[in-house]
Specification:
This protein has one domain: Nuclear Transport Factor 2, Chain: A. A six-stranded mixed beta sheet has the order 1-2-3-4-5-6. Helices cover 54% and strands 18% of the residues. The protein is of the alpha+beta class and 204 residues long. The protein is built from eight helices and six strands, in the order H-E-H-H-H-H-H-E-E-E-E-E-H-H. It starts with a helix and ends with a helix. 30% of the residues are buried.
């Protein structure tokens, strides 16, 4: 269900919540500040109360900080594409719950591996009336080349939220859309895919 390629992608996405660094004196836009402040909150929370392998506590910290800044409904709809429109309301709720749990579990488990990395916020193009923006960052690693990690964000109901992450040109949403499209084509059932997700999330 969760291929290594996509797990690696999720580990890098975790850097959205890693150590954030705003370089130069450039004033950050509201979407950039959201990324920066969420990063700083998570880093501080993890340092103050280290999970020490406690998944439940780690996932609680990640969920608290992720929820206000990630549009899980939009991500789920984009990932399932036409299957989202065909799904029942119950299936949509269950898929979103399990897909969110998958993301949170990955963040919680992987955080310790990436907590020392830093993020540089790069200049972005944004008009005063734009309701979508592409937030650009570079992940700085000691002794290695920077990794380009960018965020698609949308402004809805007075808040900016992330709905996709693009790593070195590869979209998180597009990757998982292909994965679930293939899974549904193979099994012939969205219900089977949701159940497999739930079984994966229930593993200790």
């Amino acid at each position: 269900m969760v291929h290594k390629t996509f797990r690696s992608t999720l580990l890098i996405i975790l850097l959205f919540l890693g150590c954030s660094l705003a370089r130069a004196a450039t004033e950050l836009s509201e979407p950039q500040l959201i990324v920066k402040e969420a990063a700083e909150r998570l880093q501080a929370a993890m340092k103050e109360n280290p999970p020490s392998g406690n998944y439940e506590r780690a996932s609680g910290i990640v969920t608290e900080i992720l929820d206000p800044h990630v549009d899980f409904v939009r991500i789920s709809a984009l990932v399932l594409a036409k299957h989202w429109k065909r799904a029942t309301l119950e299936q949509k709720k269950r898929f979103m719950k399990e897909f969110k749990a998958l993301m949170v579990r990955t963040y919680a488990v992987a955080f310790s591996e990436y907590s020392d990395w830093e993020i540089e916020h790069l200049p972005i193009k944004m008009g005063p009336n734009d309701d979508k923006v592409f937030v650009k960052t570079a992940v700085l690693r000691p002794g290695a080349s920077p990794i380009e990690v960018n965020y698609r964000m949308i402004y809805r109901k007075g808040v900016w939220k992330v709905y996709d992450v693009v790593i070195e040109g590869i979209s998180f949403v597009s990757n998982y859309r292909t994965t679930f499209k293939n899974d549904i084509a193979r099994t012939g059932s969205l219900e089977d895919v949701i159940q497999r997700l739930a079984n994966h999330n229930n593993k200790k």
